[in-house]
Amino acid sequence: MNVQGLSNVNLQPLNKELNKVNDVNNKQSFAKVLQQSLEHINKVEKEADMKTEMLAAGKIDDLHDVMISAQKASITVEAATQIQRKVLDAYEEVSRMQV
Amino acid sequence: MSVFNSFNINASALTAQRLRMDVVSSNIANSQTTRAVMNADGEFEPYRRKMVTLQPGSNNFKSFLSKAMSKSETNQTTGVRVSNIIDDETPFKVEYNPEHPDANEEGYVELPNVDPLKEMVDLMSATRSYEANVTSLNANKGMLMKALEIGK
Amino acid sequence: MQLFDSTTNIINNSLDYSTAKNKVISNNLSNIDTPNYKAKEIPFKNILSNEIDRQISAKRTHERHIPFVGDNDKFQVKTKRQSDYNNNGNNVDIDKEMSELAKNQIYYQVLVDRLNGKFGNIQTVLRGGS
Prior knowledge:
heterotrimer, A: 99 residues, 3 helices, 78% helix, B: 152 residues, alpha+beta, two-stranded antiparallel ribbon, 6 strands
């Protein structure tokens, strides 16, 4: 049986990706994205809180408005915590990896 | 509380319709009353049929003020209110009954101008309006309760 | 560390208002046939302004002086004296009371729902999504 070598495998695209990961600019943009999403969560939460306070003060016209923004806030927080958990899981998985 | 604006509107209508029913009851109960009020000459007058007049609740000072202060007309619906209970000025019914203590010299008695037929029609109308408002109020409550279930 | 924000506090106060109002409505409804009974109500005041009012309450120079009105009780119960609704001097309007009851019920439920939502959110974060 004739076994052929793997000499003609093109590793060029993989190297490119590795270079991208090491790029300093991309690291900064991840921090930025994290910051932005946290700010977004905060904003949604604050909006739901504001609507709840207005409802308690009797200044709201539509009840469903309050409920929907509240659900938006709670789902956003839930999604954020799930993503955080998944990221940590992935990190642990990688750190346990035999090199 | 503006969430419950429609509740207030329906509640005002319920109160008004129940007052209409009360007035109908009063009319029927007094359909034979010959000594309701004493007139200026010191003679008794029979009971006069009462009628309820309704007007939109927004016809008051507060709503005119808020209308003048804000351009929008959206919150001007404030239900209904009873403006007056007025007397029916149609002439009294006259019956020949000389034995009656309130009969005049010719033996005629003036009886109230209450027509039971009219009263029954009024009563039915008030009842149906009341039911319609209860239905509307319940529908509104159901909507709000459903809104509470958003996300459950 | 403050775990609960001002919104939780406001909801708490609004629930207090709702409970007090429920008591007044029940009282009115149970006295619907009591001669000369006058309906009572708790005027809806902005809970927020209520809070602010309490923070700048009038100062008593001696603790045994008579407290100022509204110092002790959170909500003022008002009696509607000017109207008569019945021959026996009673002025409870059952339709109004029933609709107030329905309103109050929904108001209470919304606030409880929102309070649950707020606590649920904090718990979600504390448990870290697991």
